[in-house]
Amino acid sequence: MKYTHIEREAGAFQQPIPAETIEKLCKRAFGESTEVVAARELGNGEYNNVYLFEFVGRDAVILRVAPRSTGQVGWLEHSFMRSEYMLQPYFAPIAPLIPKILMIDFTHQLLERDYMFQTYMPGELWSNVMDELTEAENDALWRQFAHIVRTISTIKGEAFGMPYPGQQFATWGGKILDTLEQSRREAAGYGLDSEPIQMLLDIASAHVDLLDEITTPYLRHGDLWPFNILIQRQEDGPVISAVLDADQGSWGDPLADWTFNLLERKASPHIQELFWQAFGRPEETPGLRFRTSLYKGMHCCQALNWLQRLNLTQHHKEVYADLYKALTELQRLAS
């Protein structure tokens, strides 16, 4: 077996899988006669280790391995893969775009980490080739993307929050307050300045009625952006061929999903307009304006902790500035 992996520092929470363990995982999943030709770690994952496998007499597959449950894994991430498994049936409306789970193992008998084998989805990461495409081609992909986001956001659930083994809530306000409190505790545990998170939590608590205007939990992918989209180039233009990494999926207000945070922060006004035309603009209300500002602050809180875990603390100053900006906006709306 030809085995290649990405070299990382000893303290990184993404650690490679030993070659002998790789072969054991494959034999458990596909039988003792399985012959692995090559196992190559892919570099586009920031949470799971992701490998592409080639076999003798079998289609290529993807292996995703979750990190160990350690202090480097935050309160929100410790059960991502198990939650993704529970959510898989709900992505049925976009089933042709979702990798199929071939085998999943939570026993920790061969490896003290959760892992799953999935079908290999051909295509190129949109984020990697975006600059190679024409403006018209990217515009067409953004419209397709908005349609996919819209389709996901129409799928109804029964409770707010993460699926089992995550926590569920009867109200959207309850879920948001818990998220903010957990973020505050984690930031304080890291020695970060958690005062602005507490201020955000106080404002949210005082106006929970505006959060509870959201009464129906809808499906959210959790990390849907061009870095999790595969495309294929065809004669009549590129098409989205796969939606990857739904391990941060949950139930809630679709507009609180990470996609909409990135849309405002990363996309040009032109792309934002294309997206909203295809997705459909929500009706402007005082509640919507309050929630939008709160979501901005909430995403900043989660980003602070994520950057801390990744040792990217040089970005903290920028995120704190955005957090205080969201706080100022919220205080104005709440007055």
From TrEMBL:
All residue ranges annotated as the Aminoglycoside phosphotransferase domain in the record: 40-285
Residue ranges that the Swiss-Prot or TrEMBL entry lists as coiled coil: none
Natural source organism: Dictyobacter vulcani
UniProt-recorded name of the protein: Aminoglycoside phosphotransferase domain-containing protein
UniProt cross-references to InterPro entries, sorted A to Z: AGP_Transferase, Aminoglycoside_PTrfase, Kinase-like_dom_sf
Recorded superkingdom: Bacteria
Cross-referenced Pfam families: APH
